[in-house]
Structure formats: structure tokens, C-alpha cells
Design goal:
alpha+beta; about 30% strand; ph1033 like fold; 4 helices; single chain; about 140 residues
Amino acid sequence: MTNSGIKLVWAGWDGDPTIGFSGRASKRWAEHLPVGTRMLLYETTGRAKGSKAKGSKSIVGEVEVSGSFDDGVAIRADDEQHDAVLPVGVVQARADVSPVRLERVREILDDEKWPRRGESWRPLSEEEYQALLAEMRG
């Protein structure tokens, strides 16, 4: 079974080498995000400071955790706006997937209220993960 989940990202994600978390979320999830964890990336309409990107409200890619939050400190960009970053490698790039829209994600998760305020990471069951991957492949 793959350790997997959905991670919310700001508008404009496209192959970034790190994924940002708040300080609180990084403490909460650090031990649950070992190297090899797969993250399906859900693009929100929120934007990084100075960005003009428009969010799609859909899953737009997949990454795999390649280090710890401690490792992220060493590669953190000077202008990073998150409290903590996790190193990742791209598994499925934005250009290579069919976006999975919010409504379909909610159907697969059987959760009409997802995403919830303050929740930036949601672990997935193997069944949910595989269903979302199938949607991404079109």
C-alpha cells in the first residue's frame, strides 16, 4: 500500500522542488510524511504574494516526498512564504495529467465539504488514491 494523500497548493504550481506547509501543519504531519509518500496536488485559488496565477480548483499533478522538513531548510528559497517546506520529486507533471475537478474529487472522497478550512493535507485510502490516479490518466 502506498502512503498517499492530497496536498493543497497555491495557484500556479508547476514542478516545484518543494511543497510548503504552515508551521503547525508541518509539526502535525511530519512523522506521517516519510520519504516515498505520494502527494496528489490540488490547486487552490489562493496565490503566493506577487503571483497572478489563477487556480483551477483541481488536482493538477503528483509528487513523491524525497526528504524531511529538516532537509527542506537547506533548500528553502529566500522568498519562500511557507513556514516549512518538504523536498519532493515530480511523479506526474501538470502538463501530463487530466485535471480532476473539485466536484469529482468530492465524489471519490465521499465528502461534499472537502477541502475544509485549515486542512492542507488529507491522507487517502489506497482505494481513493487509485481512483484519483485513474481520473488523472483520463
